[in-house]
User: Which sequence fits this backbone?
């Protein structure tokens, strides 16, 4: 049972008149001295606990915490300076924390300025390694709320130790903050002499190093060398190269020939190396394991039958790709086939997979679990099962407490029953519906992303359509804050409109036209690039790119990728801060081998910071890691490298690294300690790109770091500081259903009418609404979208495209007959 955070507020200090009248009644615990003030620079009132309050807490301090634990708050004489310090102790803990916070009141909580940063400091002793510096902020509209954890304190039982850390930029709408030390393991933390000072470093005016348009909108370039394979899967490897997986590349001819391909692209020199590929990994799942190898699961066992009675089939095969040798090695089989599966890495390095199509083309209701410890897929009797069908490529995002958030983004047709979004608790084996996702059955090939930073636990879902009913794709965005007790999606700003090409050249979008097949990429300045997409089922490419700012929840339209990027396209962040886009596979079966690279505006804002030294590339949870930079920076973060396909990369995340900046030894703040989260569910083990970012949002080139524990653990096992977010969702809760083998699905699940053309040609089962229901209108639309000759497979002609019954659809006589 998750407990709501409980704060015991210190009563307001009595006024001077009341205090004087009550002198005779004062107890010995209440000081008669004036409140210990903040110094000229220090924004903390009563920083050393020397002034007592009206209750059992010092003036301007309050008790806070949650969960099942035994605790005490004590004012102790074991002080760093003066006569008093604060001791918070847990003698028993099942969950939760306890903390002494700066009182959340207008009288005591320091006033802050949005957009500015603050240096926080304190002295401490600790008999537990489970203590961290935690911030809360007061939003002018929403009131007090958790902000972030900044630093894990080392265990220092005897000697007083100073801890310092710099806040992120204060979010818009914030007028005050409160903070203190959270104790979340058995033991005690004694703290004293708190300080808080505004960072006074001036922000230099950014210089523009490109044209005015490049500085405002960035720049797209189409690379001179084409991608040699029909890749629809893109994985950025920890050596900086990119694995591009094609398998058969949605080509039945290549499938029949047994021609399966991958390529490794090197951004340094622009070369491709085609890699032998053992199986048809077309529409597989993939995820990066904690050691940097790539786990590739399932794929295409067979294309649909010519008569349309059998659909795609997903095999049980699984492989790992080693970036060092650039070879695939087979693992044991999964328990079920999963063509179009989810693939989410967990905080202990395990991988969980749901959904997709089985070997018989039905929907898989089996959850498969890869054990990092055993390096194999576990047998079904060791994996919790709900027997739920989650759809194809369901976007399952790991939450900070180890649960999974199904965002509602999926592929092919309608969403799951209910609200279309849910929280799955693997340990409890329960599914709880989450409300608020608009048009939940038109989020087919939408994109979902955990917004920067991961500590904020907000998810953005963008666009989508429905391949079966084939309406105009939508402009919807929905945002959910998983820190809320009862989280619900709320409407975000609509995706900006661009142009759409119906076949006669781009024209402006109208009405509520949006896009599906779009990509969303986390950028190192803390924004999100959304790009690419199409208006209909594998047709009508949309040309629009914009940058979403999570702080202001606004879109800024920027330069547009000149290449169509619809079905089977990918977009992903490179270690140099650029974004690469590949692919496009329209319904006529063709493939776009051109590759585009986008340089965001931040690459035209002057010199980039440089990480001049990295003391250690092997990181553990709760670490403090030191780097040096060539000039002061405003923030640093870890970004998990992409493993993306079909608008989906549920493992993409941006993890903030709070800074402790040493500017007192003559280095002008260029020696920086980075404070790593103690929670492996916030940053699952593996390789990450480390970016340092200056005050203008200009990032360094990334350094690669490897994050893991002595043995990778879940947040629960590691005793990490986990908050009681989403602790009281009110949606419908279901446990395991009846055991069953599969979910029955129509063979046209991919939205293509298999009565016409080859398997990689997709004639819509439903045409766009503006296309008339006649052979002439439908054939004109197919011609406009560059479909070639379409043979009729078998005797059925459900779309009435072969009116003269000569076995060829959309011939001259067919159009004349209407």
Assistant:
């Amino acid at each position: 049972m998750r407990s709501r955070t409980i704060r015991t507020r210190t009563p307001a200090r009595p006024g001077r008149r009341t205090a004087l009248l009550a002198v005779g009644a004062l107890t010995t615990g209440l000081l008669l001295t004036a409140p210990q003030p903040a110094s000229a620079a220090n924004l903390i009132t009563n920083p050393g606990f020397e002034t007592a309050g009206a209750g059992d807490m010092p003036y301007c301090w309050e008790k806070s915490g949650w969960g099942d634990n035994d605790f005490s708050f004590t004012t102790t004489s074991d002080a760093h300076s003066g006569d008093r310090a604060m001791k918070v102790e847990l003698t028993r803990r099942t969950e939760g924390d306890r903390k002494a916070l700066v009182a959340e009141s207008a009288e005591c909580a320091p006033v802050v300025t949005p957009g500015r940063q603050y240096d926080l400091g304190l002295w401490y002793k600790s008999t537990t390694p489970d203590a961290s510096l935690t911030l809360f902020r007061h939003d002018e509209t929403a009131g007090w709320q958790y902000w972030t954890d900044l630093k894990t304190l080392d265990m220092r039982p005897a000697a007083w130790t100073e801890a310092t850390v710099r806040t992120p930029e204060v979010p818009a709408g914030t007028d005050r903050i409160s903070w203190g030390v959270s104790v979340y393991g058995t033991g005690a933390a004694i703290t004293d002499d708190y300080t808080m000072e505004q960072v006074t470093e001036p922000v230099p005016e950014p210089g523009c190093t490109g044209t005015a348009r490049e500085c405002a909108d960035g720049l797209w370039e189409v690379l001179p060398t084409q991608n040699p394979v029909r890749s629809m899967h893109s994985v950025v490897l920890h050596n900086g190269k990119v694995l591009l997986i094609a398998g058969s590349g949605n080509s039945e001819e290549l499938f029949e020939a047994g021609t399966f391909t991958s390529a490794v692209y090197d951004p340094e020199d622009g070369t491709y190396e085609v890699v032998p590929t053992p199986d048809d990994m077309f529409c597989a799942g993939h995820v990066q394991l904690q050691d940097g190898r790539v786990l590739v699961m399932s794929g295409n066992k067979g294309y649909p039958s010519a008569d349309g009675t059998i659909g795609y089939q997903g095999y049980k095969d699984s492989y790992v790709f080693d970036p060092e040798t650039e070879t695939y090695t087979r693992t044991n089989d999964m328990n079920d086939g999963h063509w179009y599966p989810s693939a989410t890495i967990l905080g202990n390095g395990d991988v969980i997979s749901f959904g997709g199509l089985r070997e018989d083309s039905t929907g898989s209701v089996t959850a498969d679990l890869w054990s990092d410890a055993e390096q194999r897929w576990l047998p079904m009797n060791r994996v919790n099962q709900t027997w739920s069908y989650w759809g194809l490529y369901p976007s399952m995002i790991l939450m900070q407490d180890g649960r999974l958030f199904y965002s509602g983004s999926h592929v092919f047709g309608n969403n799951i029953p209910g609200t279309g979004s849910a929280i799955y608790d693997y340990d409890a084996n329960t599914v709880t519906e989450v409300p608020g996702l608009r048009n939940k059955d038109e989020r087919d090939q939408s994109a979902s992303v955990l917004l920067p930073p991961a500590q904020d636990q907000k998810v953005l879902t963008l666009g989508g359509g429905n391949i079966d009913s084939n309406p105009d794709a939508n402009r919807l965005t929905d945002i959910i804050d998983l820190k809320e007790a009862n989280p619900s999606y709320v409407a975000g700003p609509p995706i900006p409109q661009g142009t759409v090409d119906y076949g006669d050249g781009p024209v402006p979008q109208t009405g509520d036209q949006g896009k599906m097949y779009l990509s969303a990429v986390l950028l190192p300045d803390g924004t999100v690039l959304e790009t690419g997409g199409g208006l209909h089922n594998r047709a009508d490419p949309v040309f629009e790119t914009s940058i979403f700012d999570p702080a202001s929840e606004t879109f800024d339209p920027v330069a547009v990728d000149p290449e169509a990027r619809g079905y089977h396209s990918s977009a992903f962040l490179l270690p140099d801060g650029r974004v690469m886009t590949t692919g496009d596979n329209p319904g006529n079966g063709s493939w776009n081998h051109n590759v585009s690279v986008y340089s965001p505006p931040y690459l035209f804002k002057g010199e980039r910071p440089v990480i001049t030294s990295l003391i250690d590339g092997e990181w553990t949870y709760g670490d403090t890691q030191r780097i040096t930079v060539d000039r002061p920076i405003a923030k640093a973060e870890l970004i998990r490298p992409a493993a993306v396909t079909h608008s989906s990369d549920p493992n993409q995340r941006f993890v903030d690294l709070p800074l402790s900046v040493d500017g007192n030894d003559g280095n002008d703040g260029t020696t920086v300690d980075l404070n790593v989260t103690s929670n492996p569910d916030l940053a699952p083990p593996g390789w990450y790109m480390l970016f340092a970012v200056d005050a203008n949002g200009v990032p360094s080139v990334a350094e690669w770091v490897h994050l893991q524990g002595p043995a990778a653990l879940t947040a629960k096992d590691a005793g990490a500081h986990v908050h009681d977010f989403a602790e009281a969702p009110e949606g419908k809760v279901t446990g395991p259903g009846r055991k069953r083998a599969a979910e029955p699905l129509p063979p046209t699940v991919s939205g293509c009418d298999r009565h016409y053309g080859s398997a990689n040609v997709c004639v819509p089962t439903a045409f766009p609404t503006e296309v008339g229901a006649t052979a002439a209108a439908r054939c004109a639309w197919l011609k406009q979208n560059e479909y070639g000759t379409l043979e009729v497979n078998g005797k059925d002609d459900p779309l009435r495209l072969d009116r003269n019954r000569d076995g060829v659809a959309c011939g001259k006589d067919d159009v004349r007959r209407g």
User: Anything to note?
Assistant: The helical segments are 16-21, 212-217, 252-257, 715-718, 775-784, 812-816. Confidence is low (pLDDT under 50) at residues 1-33.
